[in-house]
Write a structure and sequence with these properties.
Layout (H helix, E strand, L loop, with lengths): L1 H45 L1 H9 L3 H4 L9 H17 L1 H12 L5 H38 L12 H18 L2 H10 L5 H6 L1 H15 L5 H22 L9
Length: 250
């Protein structure tokens, strides 16, 4: 009995040390990401004027001009644009750090699968950003401005425009990571491809609902255009999850 108790204590100590090591590793990865984003932000600030023009370009055909209302606002807005630019610039490195953190917990077969998913996750994120920039934001701006009446004259602040654009670009970028999220849930055994296949009708409803919530003004055509790639991401997830083996628990 004492021997079993001793083994149990050793196992608990080993698990405790392992947890501490994981936390140290996580902290190290987070620090590296923060340093990388800071450096990316510094580089982006050099081109912040051009970056700011690029960010508001999808809105300008409709709103024509933007305005600032305080002395510090132009500098703050360029800092905000630089943060977004720096984040996009170092996003490959961010995904690489995520990969390095989860890699030790994977088997050799899983490493091959998730190594390919690293690039796939980056492509999905950039695809979401591109869809927002070239379709959702221009159409959304047009729709939202159309609600104005003759008694309402637009005087739109630059900060409102930048917040609007960054919110949708980052939001759609992360939404497009749905396949990666579902694969993570499959890894811990919460879902599998059979369960997802049986519930396709809920996926269709969810894709449409999410598209309506994200699309400014809930314009029908734009929502349907967004719902289609969201549903396709679900189908891609179903295919990929077939190759994910749930981790066995002790």
């Amino acid at each position: 009995m004492k021997q079993n108790s001793s083994v149990t204590e050793d196992e608990l100590e080993e698990k405790r040390l392992t947890l501490v090591e994981h936390l140290d590793e996580l902290r190290s990865r987070i620090i590296r990401v923060l340093v990388a984003v800071t450096l990316g932000m510094i580089v982006a600030f050099i081109f912040s004027a051009q970056l700011l023009d690029w960010l508001i370009a999808p809105c300008l055909p409709i709103i024509k001009n933007t305005y600032f209302t305080s002395i510090l606002q132009p500098f703050n807005i360029r800092l905000k644009a630089s943060f977004f630019g720096g984040l996009i610039l170092v996003s490959p490195y961010v995904f690489f750090q995520i990969w390095k953190f989860v890699k030790p917990a994977l088997t050799q077969k899983e490493k091959k699968v998730f190594r390919g998913l690293l690039g796939f996750a980056l492509v999905l994120f950039l695809a979401g950003v591109a869809l927002g920039y070239f379709l959702i934001i221009p159409q959304g701006t047009k729709i939202l401005i159309s609600y104005a009446t003759p008694s309402m004259q637009p005087l739109i602040g630059i900060e409102e425009v930048v917040n609007f654009v960054i919110f949708f670009l980052l939001g759609l970028g992360f939404i497009f990571e749905i396949p990666i999220l579902l694969m993570g849930l499959a890894k811990v055994g919460l879902v599998d491809h059979k369960l997802l296949s049986k519930n396709r009708r809920y996926a269709i409803f969810g894709a449409v609902l999410l598209a309506v919530c994200v699309t400014p003004g809930s314009e029908v055509i734009t929502s349907l255009i967004l719902a289609l790639p969201l549903y396709l991401l679900f189908e891609v997830s179903v295919v990929l999850i077939k190759y994910v083996k749930p981790r066995e628990t002790d």
